[in-house]
Structures are given as C-alpha cells and as structure tokens.
Amino acid sequence: MAAMRACDRVLSGTRPVTVREELGELTAAAEPDLMPDWYGDGPVAGLEERVAGLLGAEAAVFFPSGTMAQQVAIRYGAEVTGRDTVALHPLGHQEVHERRAYADLTGLRSVHPTTARRNPTAAELVALGEPVGTVVFELPLRDAGFVLPTWPELSDACTVARRTGARVHFDGARIWESTPYLNRALPEIAGLADSTYVSFYKTLGGLSGAALAGTTALAAYARTWRHRYGGQIFQQWPAVLAAHSGLDRELPRIPQYVRHARVVAAALAELPGAVVYPEPPHTNQFRLWLPYPAARLNEAALALAEEEKVWFAAGWQDTGIPGQAMAEIVAHAPSLDWSARDVTETGLRLLDRVQR
C-alpha cells in the first residue's frame, strides 16, 4: 500500500488514502448543519431514499454489510414463498465469500442451476425440477471474471423464475458498472428483480455499507431482521457520507471507466502469453493471466512501483496451471490517462523484471 500510494501513475485500482485524508473528504461532504444519525434516522434515512430513487424501488434499507443484506433477502424469499431452497451459482458471493451464511444461520439449502462460468439461463431454471424460494443473479458474476448475461438472457431468466413462483434477487454489489453492457438504466435493470442489493464501497469508493431495495413490505421485514442480526448500529454517518460522495463523484463516471477498460484489456492482450477475460470486458473489471508464478509477478510489480513510481497490478494468484498466475484489473479514475501504448509498454517492462 505504501508503494502504491507513492506512485505517480496507477493502472489498476485507486491510490490508497490516509485516515486524515478520508476524514477531510467526509468533512467536505457534510452539510454545515447535518446532525449524526440515531439508530437509522437522519443521514441514513436520506441515503435510503436516494438509493430507492436510483433503483426505482418503493424503499431501500441501509445495512452495515452486504452479507447481512443478502441473508435477509434470501430469508424473506423463503418465508413468503414457503420454500426453503435457494437457487445460487456455485461461484456466487453467498457460496464463496459469505461462508454459506444462508444455510448455517437460516437453515436453507441451495441448488445450482449451472456450473458454467455465467449466470443461469431460463432453460436451466426450467430444468431445475424442484421449487425454489429465491433465484439469485450476481451482476456481474465476479468470480467467473465479472461476466454479465445479455439483456434478453437476463429478462428471460427472470421471467421464468417468476413463473415458477420464485422471487428474483439481484446481488448487485457491482450493478452500477453493469448498465453499459446491459444497455439499460438502473431502474429498468432493478425492475426485473424483487430485491436488489447494492454496495457502497465497491467501485463507489465508500467506507463500507450496503442497501437492500425492493417493496415497502420487504423493507419493513429487512429493518426487523437487520436489528436481529446486529445491524441496528447507533451511528453510521461516516459510511453514509462516504456513500453519498461515491454516488456524486463515481456513479456518473462509470460508463467512462467501462469504455476505458476495453482499451486497457486490448493493450494487455498484446503482452506475450497474456490472456484477458472476458474480451472485451463486460464492466470496468476483468481478469488477466500471465505465464509466470504469482510470487515473481508480485515482486516485479512492487519493484516497478518502488523504482519507477508506476503501479501496474497487484494481488497475483497462482492458478491450477503451473507457472501461470491471474490478477483482477480494475479500470478506475487513475487509469484514464493511460493510452494503449502506455499500458503495453509498462506491461513489457514488468515482464522484463519478471524474467531477470
């Protein structure tokens, strides 16, 4: 983090900030007479209204974490349908990053409509052969490479899910950057689902926090279970202010990030042995594979940062193929001034260090 912070140029991600800098941004975002929230009123209620408006929903409820919000959404689906089964992707956030909380805390069971590296199709939902309470679509499916269905594919799958009597839930932690590929506005996308979860720190750069949007009935249920899960926190105004700042600053720029990600991806694909997926990217995030061990790539990236003050990409992980590593690339504000030539030339300098 220290090396990245000291860099003059950043290709993937955003430069880390200090606590003092973060506090300065929060102070600038606060209205002079704004008072702290008290167990969910004031600033929290204001953010909830804003998110409901952005998504075209009747109501939205602020949660301290997306894991909590998604548990509540899936629990609600089970209770209103009387079905204790949820349709999930095995690479979905609930399975990979939430420690299967829906099962261990709520007692629900899951079925996997598909193991393909994409969201389920309408035909796969028809073929499930058993009733489910909720069908979850992760937009985009992060651990498959930030991939999205087409608009017709998503619309058809949601229609079929509803015909079977299931609710549709969107894991929309990154739904903000899904609009260019789907070529639809946020209210139209969220309108396909019965509930949508959004994150305020992924892409928007907030401190923490999430929201669950849907009907007023869902919101009332969500507030009850948020309290029971321990999410009725005394004051959350720092996260709320940061969320507003992210919506003000980043949301309008996301289409530009997505367009630039395609430029970056095409340039990276020119590197010897490189594989980019998906190509072109569906959002402003995608995956890059290079034919070297992760440790050597991480060492080379750090050396490049320390010696040239240029940040390429970090977090390289070894894959199942010996000698090949993968990193997630995020096109954000700092990368916008990188030309395709800049990207390729920097990548070649990185590989030169790897091969020394």
From TrEMBL:
One of its GO terms (cellular component) is cytosol. The keyword Transferase does not apply. GO terms for biological process: glycine biosynthetic process; L-threonine catabolic process. Residues 41-284 form the Aromatic amino acid beta-eliminating lyase/threonine aldolase domain. It comes from the Bacteria. The keyword Transport does not apply. Keywords: Pyridoxal phosphate. Pfam families: Beta_elim_lyase. One of its GO terms (molecular function) is L-allo-threonine aldolase activity. Its cofactor is pyridoxal 5'-phosphate. Belongs to the threonine aldolase family. This is Threonine aldolase. It comes from Actinoplanes siamensis.
